[in-house]
TrEMBL record:
<protein>
    <submittedName>
        <fullName>Uncharacterized protein</fullName>
    </submittedName>
</protein>
Length: 170
């Protein structure tokens, strides 16, 4: 079953059109930006929320960046595997990803290569956006918000549990 953060934080009802921006220094390619756009779309399809990319990083509601190791927020990344990403509850909007992971960007993670540590970027993005919107973890194993994902796994479809949870908030 879905859960929320303590105090049930959410984006306010007057602020359902959210903007997101990528950390300017990251210089992500079009393919990577598309992965995030698709991940946001999963949630906008089932809520009144909209998500639009902006180039104004400082003014964006949601700020996405890849970092390695200690990056100044008290939650350092740990290299390959372990913590993959973290996102804060509303209305903070920070979404950080561990730049050290073997991210699979839009490819087929189930057949990805040599490295058994391949992690599907879109799957992690859909999960972290759930946190950005106010969802905690779910006890339903098939759900996007379940607190475990395996490498070489693609899990991007919201389940009825995820949809029920987000529709309580929005
Ligand atoms: N990062 C954890 C997560 O996003 C961070 C975290 C731990 C957390 N406890 C929390 C966030 C409690 C909110 C509330 O869950 S992670 C997965 C999953 C991670 C984990 O790097 O471990 C995904 C990132 F759920 F699959 F295991 C993305 Cl999809
Ligand atoms: Zn961080
Ligand atoms: Zn999580």
């Amino acid at each position: 079953h879905y859960s929320f953060f303590p105090g049930t934080p959410r984006w306010p009802s007057g602020q359902l059109d959210l903007t997101y921006a990528f950390l300017p220094g990251n210089n992500l390619d079009a393919k990577t930006r598309q992965v995030f756009a698709r991940a946001f779309q999963r949630w906008s399809e089932v809520t009144p929320l909209t998500f639009n990319e902006t180039s104004n990083y400082r003014r964006a509601n949601i700020r996405i960046g890849f970092y390695t190791g200690d990056h100044g927020d008290g939650e350092p990344f740990d290299g390959v595997m372990g913590t993959l990403a973290h996102a804060f509850s509303p209305p903070n909007g920070l979404f950080h990803l561990d730049g050290a992971e073997n991210w699979v960007v839009g490819g087929d993670v189930t057949t990805a290569s040599s490295d058994s540590d391949a992690i599907d970027l879109e799957s992690v993005a859909v999960h972290e956006i759930g946190h950005l919107l106010g969802l905690g973890h779910s006890s339903v194993e098939e759900s996007i918000m379940y607190p475990t994902i395996s490498s070489r796994t693609r899990k991007v479809q919201l389940t009825s549990d995820d949809v029920s949870g987000i529709q309580v908030l929005y």
